[in-house]
Amino acid sequence: MRTGLDAEPFTALAFKVMTDPYVGKLTFFRIYSGSVKAGSYVTNTTKGTKERFGRLLQMHANSREEVKEAYTGDILAVVGLKATTTGDTLASEDQTIVLESMNFPEPVIEIAVEPKTKADQDKMGIALAKLAEEDPTFKVFSNHETGQTIIAGMGELHLDIIIERLKREFKVQANVTEPQVAYRETITQETETEGKFIRQSGGRGQYGHVWMRFEPNPGKGFEFVNKIVGGVVPREYVPAVQKGIQEALAGGILAGYQIIDVKATLFDGSYHDVDSSEMAFKIAASMALKETKTKGNPVILEPIMDVEVVTPNDYVGNVIG
């Protein structure tokens, strides 16, 4: 058990990170044991990285005083830490202790932001990264399906403040919109389709030919089955067929949304001794999937959400009613 004595090895907890327009990144920390000097090297035991303490600052409201050394119980800010984030433990280089970190709630609301100009686009990513580093309850990510930049926080007011800080502190003008819904597609009836890719040029050609059976697979995702017998499609080309289907599923057949819950069975096909290749069979498989647009009765799926309601036994009847 650590005792709060200056003679003990240095241990501290970083509890806040902020960006200062004059000195850059400031990391606030409280020392639980030992002491530390400006310019010292310490270990971030949470991440296993080495950090160098730059200037030590004693904060007094909106003013600051630079100090050379800090002791047990002191709360200060330090300049120069690169990898440390809120909740990390800082300790002397020979220590491995990790203090209890902080638990932060997950964001509950999301909005999409887009820069108004090209110049704003270059600055927005940097600004959002700095704001996310300061606030562990604020998240930013890119939705690869819709291409939107999404910011998430603890409520409308929280995100309003983030947008205002973007404009005031970072001079970034951004439009705020609702996140686009990432729909899904699937097929609703079993179908057998043929995919045949043949290309002849001056030299070696391309030849891939498959027969596929596609079936609805509710709640089970994508499943691939190889039912080839007799070597009509050589074994080395079967993985290419599976990969071709998986890549085609990502592009959709109705509106470009990802296709889910489909069972694909490879049951027949043919090959050419010279012209067949993995690429040819990949393309043939994707062509077979696209044929389900007319034969598989595809539909667009909307997102659904499961809601769990917890209530005392005395009120169950009223809640259900």
Reported CATH architecture of the largest domain: 2-Layer Sandwich
**What is the total tally of β strands?**
21
Placed side by side, the strands forming the largest sheet appear as 5-4-10-1-2-9-6-7
> How many domains make up the 3D coordinates?
3
Gyration radius, in Å: 29 Å
Query: How would you spell out the order of helices and strands?
Result: EEEEEEEEEEEHEEHEEEEEHEEHHEH
Span from first to last CA?
55 Å
Pfam families: EF-G_D2 (PF22042), EFG_III (PF14492), EFG_IV (PF03764)
Protein name: Elongation factor G
GO molecular function, one term: translation elongation factor activity
Main location: cytoplasm
Describe the protein.
- The protein is of the alpha+beta class and 321 residues long.
- The chain has 3 domains: 11-91, Beta Barrel (Elongation Factor Tu (Ef-tu), domain 3), CATH 2.40.30.10; 109-177, Elongation Factor G (Translational Gtpase), domain 3 (Alpha-Beta Plaits), CATH 3.30.70; 185-301, Ribosomal Protein S5, domain 2 (2-Layer Sandwich).
- It contains 6 helices and 21 strands.
- The chain has helices at 118-134, 156-170, 238-251, 278-290, 292-295, 316-320, and strands spanning 11-20, 24-33, 36-37, 41-44, 49-52, 56-60, 63-67, 69-70, 75-79, 89-91, 109-115, 139-142, 149-153, 174-177, 184-187, 191-199, 206-216, 223-226, 258-259, 262-270, 298-301.
- It has an 8-stranded antiparallel sheet with strand order 5-4-10-1-2-9-6-7.
- Strand 16 (191-199) and strand 17 form a beta hairpin.
- It starts with 10 loop residues before the first strand and ends with a helix.
